[in-house]
Amino acid sequence: MTEQATGADPDTPEIPGKPTSASRTTLSHIMTHADTNLLGTVHGGVIMKLVDDAAGAVAGRHSGGPAVTASMDEMAFLEPVRVGDLVHVKAQVNWTGRTSMEVGVRVLAERWNESAPATQVGSAYLVFAAVDADGTPRPVPPVLPETERDERRRQEAQIRRTHRLARRRAITELREKRAAEGLDV
């Protein structure tokens, strides 16, 4: 049973699920000199914006409305991106909770001067919260994995969520303890 079907509010009807393919998307962009850092490669912040843009499109598609970035986990830059590279940012929903969802993103680059296949140059996981017009969290449809790979991604996303929540709890407890001891005031 989905988290939505077992939610705390029995009066809230279950939202029909959506398959992973329903919101999966790819954004592509040619890198230019305006995208470079002092080393002459594409600035990581440019890649991060493309990642957030693709993930936001997927989150909005999946949730059927506005969704905002809540966090970004594990942004990995695997290879440099250069001027002229055609960058493809592929994103899909991996996991959904009641009002939030994790979007997995892979970043690929086609080298303008090579005939080799696209190379994976980065990856990230982002958490989005679906919101209404007032910015209040709203329910999202459960994600329905379609393949074994989608199911593996859903399970891995649940592990990342468990770790995020445990880290947040541990930090809160430490801060409360230090405050009670009169430290860090």
UniProtKB/TrEMBL annotation:
Region (Disordered): 1-23, 137-161
Keywords assigned: Hydrolase
One term of GO molecular function: fatty acyl-CoA hydrolase activity
Name recorded for this polypeptide: Acyl-CoA thioesterase
UniProt keyword Hydrolase, yes or no: yes
EC numbers on record: 3.1.2.20
Residues in HotDog ACOT-type domain copies: 21-134
InterPro entries xrefs: Cytosol_ACT (IPR040170), HOTDOG_ACOT (IPR033120), HotDog_dom_sf (IPR029069), Thioestr_dom (IPR006683)
Protein origin, superkingdom: Bacteria
Gene3D superfamilies: Hotdog Thioesterase
Biased composition (Basic and acidic residues): 146-159
Protein family according to the UniProt entry: Belongs to the acyl coenzyme A hydrolase family.
PANTHER family from the UniProt entry: ACYL COENZYME A THIOESTER HYDROLASE, PROTEIN VDLD
